[in-house]
Amino acid sequence: WLGRQELRPLVVAAGQKLDNRFGLFRHDSFVGRALGAKVFSEKGRGWLLLLPATPELWAAALPLRTQIIQALDRAVVTAELHIRPGQKVLESGTGSGAMSLSLLRALGSKGKLLTFEYNQSRADAARKDFEALGMQERVDVFCRNVCQDGFLCDAVEATSVDALFLDLPRPQDALQSAAEVLKPNGRLGSYSPCIEQVMATCDGLRALGFHSIRTIEAREKVFEPSRLDFIDLEGAAAQQREGVQRRPRAPLPMATRLCAKAVPGMRGHTAYLTFAYAPLTPLGDAAS
């Protein structure tokens, strides 16, 4: 952490150094320090904070390969997909990996994430990021166009997946394959910026027998505590009961109260989040 608008991922290595406008920092001085510690430069004219690579911080610091899903939407997706430790989850549209990290945190050390990205360079970059974070054993990255080739492969068997998340331009093209790999009553989520994508997705989900389909939009409204002065009505009433005579035009008694004030500039629309449960009967069984 170098400032409110400046976060950088750093891999600590013996003998290496970090030189920036705040001064010279030797990696050896980071070793053994607690996370959250403030480390001063060699000449003491600047400092930085050592912070863990949480999904939120990593998303703010990583080089963007694609537009990332915002923190509020990532939290809603993780909750609505009912992600729990030890599950097997599929994701299509790895992109910069921000959503992947949120899913991995919820899956815990025993869970498994299989993420699909059709662009080879982005898939390779995401794989390197996961290795740098020490998560290579918990996530597999595939370069595959699931809209054309589907999810079924050597690593993914039919009805073996607990939850599946789609971040695709045409999510409706991947629904048939998603229904094949999801467990009965498994959870599916889709991220779509446009309502036309939502309409096509919901039509496809209904046609495949998905149930409990719903679409939501998450908006973040921030409140900040502040102290404001108000007319003290209770004090004025007490004075009246006690017979205290108030001079004409005399100011009314005031009182300071702690209030929650909405911060102007609420973030606008990001995307529509569609969720559904897979059919209770697998597609193959229903067809037979």
UniProtKB/TrEMBL annotation:
Residues 46-276 form the tRNA (adenine(58)-N(1))-methyltransferase catalytic subunit TRM61 C-terminal domain. It is found in: Nucleus. Transmembrane segments: none annotated. GO terms for cellular component: nucleus; tRNA (m1A) methyltransferase complex. Its EC number is 2.1.1.220. It holds the Pfam family GCD14. This is tRNA (adenine(58)-N(1))-methyltransferase. It comes from Pinguiococcus pyrenoidosus.
